[in-house]
Amino acid sequence: MDKNKFYITTAIAYTSRKPHIGNTYEIILTDAIARFHRYIGEDVFFLTGTDEHGQKIQEIAEAEGVTPQAYVDRIAGQIVDIAKMLNISYDKFIRTTDDYHVKAVQQIFRKLYDQGDIYKSEYEGWYCTPCESFWTETQLVDGKCPDCGREVKKTKEEAYFFKMSKYQDRLMEYIETHPDFIQPESRKKEMVNNFLKPGLQDLCVSRSSFSWGIPVDFDDKHVIYVWIDALSNYITALGYTPEHKGELYRKYWPCDVHIIGKDILRFHTIYWPIMLMALGEPLPKQIFGHPWMLFGEEKMSKSRGNVIYAEDLVRHFGVDAVRYYALHEMPFAQDGNITYDVFIARYNSDLANALGNLVNRTVAMIQKYFGGELNGNTVTGEFDADLQATAINAVAEVRKKMETNHIADSLDEVWKVIDRANKYIDETTPWILAKDEATKGRLATVLYNLAETIRIIASLLSSFMPETAAAIAGQIHAADISYESVQAFGGLPLGTKVGEAVPLFQRIDVQKKLEELEAELAPSVPVAPFKDYIEFEDFEKLDIRVGRVIECERVKKSEKLLRFILEVGSETRQILSGISKYHTPEELIGKNVIFIANLKPRKIMGLESCGMILSAEYEDTLTALTTIKDIQSGAEIV
Fold this sequence. Notes:
Layout: E1 5-10, E2 13-14, H1 21-39, E3 43-51, H2 55-64, H3 68-85, E4 92-95, H4 99-114, E5 118-128, E6 133-135, E7 153-162, H5 168-177, E8 182-183, H6 185-196, E9 203-204, E10 206-207, E11 214-216, E12 219-224, H7 226-231, H8 233-236, H9 247-252, E13 257-261, H10 265-279, E14 287-290, E15 293-295, E16 298-299, H11 310-317, H12 319-328, E17 336-338, H13 340-370, H14 384-402, H15 407-428, H16 430-433, H17 440-461, H18 466-475, H19 510-521, H20 536-540, E18 544-554, E19 562-568, E20 571-577, H21 585-588, E21 592-596, E22 602-604, E23 607-609, E24 612-613, E25 615-618, E26 621-624
Parallel strand pairs: 1-3, 1-13, 2-3, 3-4, 8-14, 13-14, 15-17
Antiparallel strand pairs: 5-6, 5-7, 7-9, 10-12, 11-12, 15-16, 18-19, 18-21, 19-20, 21-24, 22-23, 25-26
Helix pairs in contact: 2-3, 6-10, 11-12, 13-15, 13-17, 13-19, 14-15, 14-17, 15-17, 17-18
């Protein structure tokens, strides 16, 4: 009999930077789901990968002085290494720079163009480079990107557009008739009410202002924009092209579930289904928008200095502790959070105390009282049935919750068994039973029940904490921890010789570990070497003033220069400054800036620059210096 097929994907990781634990959470979550479906006997295909094109990547690569391909090769390599470190069991890793993907995307674009779903026009509006999203004036929030809150740039360029509105009603009907298509329910309401009901605008699907992307093969001025490129990976990885549907595609599509972050829900629940409708292909069965893992109450951000990386956590706490925290501390529909002190508290209470102590003392007692051998299970007592029922019921409960992606709730079911087993030790008091030869038969049964319960715990943990599950099975010498083996209590054979009691998780000294982490992970701020001392008289030669920006614009044919007109008291001053990559003209108009007023004028690109605006430089960023208060322009800096 053929196994049930199960196809699961992550969103492919954007290669603009090394991912932090908030980004990495998604692949841990998806891996646990994939492992569980393998565990229950399904034929699983688990896809992950990297999204490697776009203006943001091109700009970062140029700033580093490397080619975009060299840059994404490095970041993709880091992402593969992180997946390996976290014991991720993916079946395929796709990169959007892979040749087969590039060719398939070009064919998809051409098909949509040939059938009239894509047309050429011109775009004028606001563009957010980090989000790779276009916005109208009315969609901006306080003049900034409504998704990420960053600055946007006024953009006008020729582009190809996809007729989203053509498929809007069909998509609405599909969502209404497939209630599980978008999960959780709150995400579905957000998409329908905020985007579909107000009406869809046609989607920009090509760019002509940068070159790092898949070329439109019939119009070499354009590259295919991120959404058709990146979203198509879910089918191109299976060998799909419009002309040929590969064997893997025929076997596994439609996808059972796309696991994605809630911040890219619109692209997956609106753009992607419409693209598939236009291609005449089935839609995925479900799109699950998981919440964010926050640092305390804030979204992780390198600029905020609140980023935690998976390798730091693994180095200090181990792989399975990181997997456990990520899976258990993220609610089904609300954001979770991570801080080092909360992580350590959970490690000590759940892993070292509850799970670790249960396994350690059970194995130690079997060694102490019976030379390591399980040799009886016939002298029953009043607490046995409840322990056995708790363990076996958990098998069904974990499956029920995993089939609806309630991962944290599934782990709660496992911990109910762990807690019940620890209570069973207190109820049966093996150390007292061991004192009387007449109760040795009862002691043998108690220890067998504990060992068998631990075997079931190991089986249930194998999807979430595979190394720990294997270590537990190794300590009790359980040859079989398969799903089939835990459908009934009693699968551990009598006569089994357990191993040595080795602690699974060593309890952590909270204060000591926090001090160690603070010392090791405190941000190291590189400071440029200080210049030689100067005399005070040399400083006095500089005339540093405050100027109010009354005009600011980009200098034509220059990628770096902005032209400023400053109000300096009753005068005006023109200055050119190479900070256009870091500031937009709009954000500077009306601001007070600090400038050197007595620098000899010079011509730059045919324009006279009379002074120098002062900026602070850190890493790859320049920030124009401004005043805290709205001081009078022309004021002297002393």
